[in-house]
Amino acid sequence: MKGFRIKIDRQKTDIAVRNGVVVIGVDIGGDLHINGLDFYSAERLKWSNITLRDGIKVKITAADIDRTNPPVLKERMENEAILKEYNDLKTMLTEKGLLK
After folding, report:
1. Any idea what the Cα angle at residue 3 is, between residues 70 and 14, rounded to 5°?
2. Model confidence, pTM
3. Where are the domains of the chain?
4. Which branch of life, at top level (predicted)?
5. What is the pLDDT of residues 47-98, one digit of tens each?
């Protein structure tokens, strides 16, 4: 499956979700977040949060991943939470003119 091979300093992590999405982002505080969502099991997945400091080397490579590192946290989303997230996103995209 398609995913990412991430190397932070000397630590390597392979992440992918067979039936979902992987998100890698940096927040305003400088923390790198590696998360995902498995649509089949309705689980939020969290691999790690890393505070970035000057000099930390981060390499992200797209790759075919056979086996992923297990997430440190799995959180099941309830149907109501999924529907709310969908409606919130739909409202935001409609207000921005990206959906009609």
Report:
1. 40
2. 0.72
3. 2-95
4. Bacteria
5. 988 898 889 999 999 999 999 999 999 999 888 888 888 899 899 999 999 8
